[in-house]
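Hey team,

Filing this mostly as a record. A colleague (T.K.) asked me to run one chain through the structure pipeline before their review meeting, and I want the input and output archived in the tracker in case anyone asks later how it was produced. No errors, nothing strange. Just documentation.

Input sequence:
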Amino acid sequence: MEQGKLGFGFMRLPVIDGAQENIDLEQLNQMVDEFLGNGFTYFDHGI
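Output structure:
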């Protein structure tokens, strides 16, 4: 199986009520699970 060539960026995360400091961790976990489940593995964390 060919590995996907897509990265998951962490510059803009889902937030609750538009507050940038209030990250929606449940939605983020679902997004990461979907990303990994589709064979992608590269995370761009900006550090």
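Quick notes for T.K.: The two ends are 30 Å apart (CA to CA). Residues 25-37 form the longest helix (13 residues).
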